[in-house]
Amino acid sequence: MNFFQEKAVTSSDKTFFQLREEIVEGHISAGSKLSEVELSTKYEVSRAVVREAINRLEACNIVERKANVGARVVTLTSEGLLELYQIREALEGMAARLAAQNMPDAEINQLSSLLKGQQDEVKQRNVYYQEAGDLDFHYRIIVGSQNQQLITMLSNGIYHLARMYRVQLGMTGPRVTTAYDEHIHIVRAIANRDGELAEILMRRHIQYSKNNIAVKLSNMK
Amino acid sequence: MNFFQEKAVTSSDKTFFQLREEIVEGHISAGSKLSEVELSTKYEVSRAVVREAINRLEACNIVERKANVGARVVTLTSEGLLELYQIREALEGMAARLAAQNMPDAEINQLSSLLKGQQDEVKQRNVYYQEAGDLDFHYRIIVGSQNQQLITMLSNGIYHLARMYRVQLGMTGPRVTTAYDEHIHIVRAIANRDGELAEILMRRHIQYSKNNIAVKLSNMK
DNA sequence: AACAAATAAATTGTCGACAATCTTATTATT
DNA sequence: AATAATAAGATTGTCGACAATTTATTTGTT
């Protein structure tokens, strides 16, 4: 999962990563309460480190906390999804534009050949790709923007929330191949140093995947 | 200062607000170390609450922390400023567009009349306005976007960082009146429900104020 | 004197206990 | 029986102490 390599040096780090994974992957269900004592016995650490982990999750918008009451995992709503993808569209659209300006040729070539390497697998067997491949792609472009604050924002917060939505709505399905083609076009625009086009294509790309998820969400109710 | 009313219910909240203010206002200088014991004696609370406050500041990108070493106030750089305003441009541009779609008429009128009320003071005496007035303006438009995640992002993190830059670079000066006129035009676009124009104007407005600050920053070195 | 190793000091990370607050259950009153 | 007041239970917030790690100082060796 982690391209942005996060090493857990402290015990609190480890607990934070574990908790985040369990929530994002849906093993701890949305809306459920996070009891400090319960979690501290479960992970065999003190309440203090659980507390710190929960605080960090709150900063990521993965849990909500009320003073003297406790923390709950956020509940997924279609409004929340829309809001999240609006933000992604704005930020990653910008990232694509900046990447067209700033991304080193070496990184662009690397990304380009990475995509080519996936081509056969994607076109023939329709499996895979959506999860790790998509995330990897987006992350590389964010890094290519060379805006450090943007990198932090997305890799600390937004991506995990977005993944939580996708995972819990059971994202598979037929979007795989068209997404691949969109990726190809975006990289081409970046390689041509056409920031304007790169932004437009990236925004479209995110809109599509938003619609894809929104359909599933409306089917669930 | 706080339009987004933040009530300190817990002791940790209060410490967090105090610390943030001291840093943003420059009483604790950029780049300086934050000792947990030192601060706990200063604010007369336990180390645990100081720790929690520092963790929150870290989540806001106001301090940086290394495990087993400690936390330092971030250092202001021209690159950091550029990055921050790039993000603001994207997010607040979007907010202006969304506000043109979603902001209730009542709120628009309220904002409009607020600006008119400031007109005389701004045009005659060239003083004031930049600080609280500008922040209030931007915040109202963010709220008008009705994107909750966006509101959280900006009012928890970005605005305080942006303010830190402005305060510590001694923002006063002749930008006051032109900023006022820009605000007027943005509100007009929103009132006309012209999202496209509102976004363009907002982006320009932020670019201008970025340039204004960047000049000061380059003069300092 | 210069460098390396060992020791000491200081700082952060973790823990268990107590205090304050909220939630639930019980009792009292109408 | 229904509602309000009170008490009991459970959960979070805060604290001081100890452990682990880093940094500074001292000591030892060449």
UniProtKB/TrEMBL annotation, chains A, B:
Source organism: Pseudoalteromonas luteoviolacea H33
HTH gntR-type domain location: 9-76
Name of the protein this chain belongs to: GntR family transcriptional regulator
Pfam families attached to this UniProt entry: FCD (PF07729), GntR (PF00392)
Keywords carried by this UniProt record: DNA-binding, Transcription, Transcription regulation
Recorded GO MF terms: DNA binding; DNA-binding transcription factor activity
Gene3D superfamilies: GntR ligand-binding domain-like, Winged helix-like DNA-binding domain superfamily/Winged helix DNA-binding domain
InterPro entries from the UniProt entry: GntR_C (IPR011711), TF_FadR/GntR_C (IPR008920), Tscrpt_reg_HTH_GntR (IPR000524), WH-like_DNA-bd_sf (IPR036388), WH_DNA-bd_sf (IPR036390)
Domain of life of the native organism: Bacteria
SUPFAM superfamilies assigned to the protein according to its UniProt record, in alphabetical order: GntR ligand-binding domain-like, Winged helix' DNA-binding domain
